[in-house]
UniProtKB/TrEMBL annotation:
It comes from Bowmanella dokdonensis. Gene3D superfamilies: 3.30.70.270, PAS domain. Its cofactor is Mg(2+). GO terms for biological process: regulation of DNA-templated transcription. Residues 195-247 form the PAC domain. PROSITE patterns: GGDEF, PAC, PAS. NCBIfam families: GGDEF, sensory_box. Residues 129-195 form the PAS domain. InterPro entries: DGC-Regulatory_Protein, GGDEF_dom, Nucleotide_cyclase, PAS, PAS-assoc_C, PAS-like_dom_sf, PAS_fold, Rev_trsase/Diguanyl_cyclase. One of its GO terms (molecular function) is catalytic activity. This is Diguanylate cyclase. Residues 279-412 form the GGDEF domain.
Amino acid sequence: MSSSKINLLLVMEDTLRAGSIIDAIHQKVPSLHLRQAKTTAEAIKLLTKYDVEMVIIELTSASGLDIKLRLISLLPATTLLLVLGENVLSNNQWLTKAIRYFGETNQPDHPISARGIRELDYQELAGVALDAMGDAVLICDLKGQIIYLNQLAELLTGWPAKQAIDKHFTRVVLLIDSQTRRPVDCCTQSIQEDEKSEHLLLKRDGREVPVEDRLSLISNAEGQIVGHVIVLHDVSRTWVISEKMAYTAYHDSLTGLPNRPLIEERLQQAVQMAIRHRKMVGMLFIDLDQFKLVNDSFGHSVGDELLQSVARRLQDCVRTSDTVCRYGGDEFVILLAEIAHSRDAEQVAEKIIQAFAAPHQLSHRQLIINLSVGISVFPLDAQNCEMLLKHADQAMYLAKGSLQASYQLFQEPPELVNKS
């Protein structure tokens, strides 16, 4: 091997990202010889030509793992390795050398110290590189005491490094199970290594941040476990997006009401609760009379505004524990959870009909629209959710036979009643 030396070799495709890391390191130690290799093959060539003291590899995907492992196999025992990127610490094969300098470079007999390098602080150098990551990184010893955290970890937890060092992990990183609200200690509980988990992080100021966390073990050159690495990824933005997607999937875009999939899910839950508590479930199926005439006469924009007004008025007529749903077009469904008598459902229908006697105040006009309401009750009229909806729909069509707004209770067809 040539006597020429590279202090730090960056193995990453992104030239701009590599440049930002190189600039940050040069600000700390301007005299270092730094090189970038865009490919693993290029890095292997440099390793055969130069004496490389430290290698930083960025993993952007699982592809090319074999050649990256070959690169690691070529590294001398004295070469330090740091793995960055989305898949950091995701494979234990990387961990034999990765980040081990945190526990070893201060030892007098360590090979790095034997080289007599005085101007270069490898812990500081590694810290600069870790600060360039997009995730919070904390390193703990086997007792769970923090020995390092990068700048993103400081920002995410609200703990400055000077105050966090030597404190137990659970004092700085308060992870909470989002379902049970119980605290989680990933350093001491039997969590599978490198398994991603999602929890809530309780920041020092009391705010909660959804995070994806992953625990990995640090092994020294002899393969002994000497500590833990915890990587925290802030998923606030992802969580907000997923929440919006979930809301969109289960709510009507025009009225904001629950849609058909959500009402069917809630109906299943309501029936189970009614069975457990020996209660009833009321189902109201509502259709707007002559709504097509509104669209044809005034346009769809007026029709949409009327549907929004109808949705608000229906919500004003029920309890917060009930669910108003836009079932489709000009049809609405109301789920009355845990009622005591079928008369309770009739009273709600009467209240709705009375409320709709008043005109709807729209942007440029007032409109009165009548509705037909069909009622079915579990378990009197149906033994399952599907039939409860179907029977309420059938009762609604009976109500439509009236010349004015009305409601109708479900009734078995005469031929079925006679047979029974």
